[in-house]
Amino acid sequence: MSIICSNDQASRRMATGLRRLLIGGALIGLGIGPSGIFAQRPKPGGEPIVELRSDLVSFTVSVIGPRGERLRHLTREDFLVYEDGERQQISHFATVDAPVDIVLLLDTSGSMRGELKTVQRAAARFIEQMRPQDRVAIVEFNREAILHQDFTSERKRAIGAVRDLRAGSATAFYDALAVVADELLRSASERKAIVALTDGVDSASVYDFSEAARRLEQAAVAVYIVELDTEAFVIGGIRRGELTLSPAQLERYRRAYRPQDLPLRYRNPFFFTEGELVEITRGLYRLARQELRQLAERTGGRVYPLRQLSHLDQAYAEIQAELGTLYSIGYYPSRQERDGRWRSLRVEVTVAGARVHARSGYWAPSK
Question: What sign for the dihedral angle of Cα 323, 324, 327, 328?
């Protein structure tokens, strides 16, 4: 839900009290002050945080049996792991009973104002149905990302944080992803997942998608995305003159579709006709859908397209079912080169007819 109101004068909310805890102290390097806002304006360009400590490659795997059942009782010997086609020796294995740390990442941009209660109720039910050993953190994002609750196993506290969500303006989706990867996930357990509710169309980030995605890929976190369909809503708002596109969105469109055009025109939406803005909006949604699917595929998560918010409970239930049946696998690569390149992963199991779902690869450490 990543559009800005043409006459938006909403002031930024200051995060106060213990509900919005700072992650790991004062994150001054990311532009964080004592308010508790933890991704207001992160600064790109620094080296990403690499989670492959001592070159250990770790990831999660889910397995569906030949009759569609989730397989929960496999052992280390049932798995085969290949990196760039070469078989690897599994050095670490955890069963599905191990705890999972979950970041519930919720889009609260302006167009959510009329739907926020529905989202809050569904998020509360998701938390209530979590396994006792799992922890959850609550992060909302609009013009900035705000941590309402750090990882906790206390359900009442997490649900209370969800009730504090307030709709804002614009959407810094990429910034939220990048800072969650760099900071919040530092305190997460080995098995971790992000469950994001968004349409994926960013309007206000400093980071771009490739920067945010690489950080998540290196953090060994599975990203599950409940993909909202807000395209018709946004196009309708543009045609009525109620909504417009941000300069950041216009420039993203130019780079993706018309790099030969001069950037000057794309600095202001008033340089475009209504029809042109509608066409640009459609292009931004196509780009967002591609990005969300790439992110899920590379991290071992999934995308759940959602036509109506009334189906949010069902999408959350499907994600929860998979999170409860994840295996953890780790190995030390047989290739020792620290070349910073993408290396493909393939996981197989010895169960005939079973289907394996895991990330497609990882970024090797750099020198």
Answer: positive
**pLDDT tens figures, 120-134:** 999 999 999 999 999
How do strand 355-358 and strand 327-331 relate by DSSP bridges? unpaired
pTM listed for this prediction: 0.84
Distance CA 358, CA 353 (A): 16
What tokens does 298 get?
């590379």
**Sheet containing 90-94: order of strands:** 90-94, 327-331, 57-64, 355-358
Three-class DSSP category at 319:
helix
CATH superfamily of 13-49+97-323: von Willebrand factor, type A domain (3.40.50.410)
Q: What DSSP state is assigned to residue 37?
A: B
**Residues in contact with 106: Cβ distance below 8 Å, sequence separation at least 6, in sequence order:** 119, 123, 138, 139, 140, 141, 162, 165, 196, 197
Domain boundary assignment for the chain? 13-49+97-323, 54-96+326-363
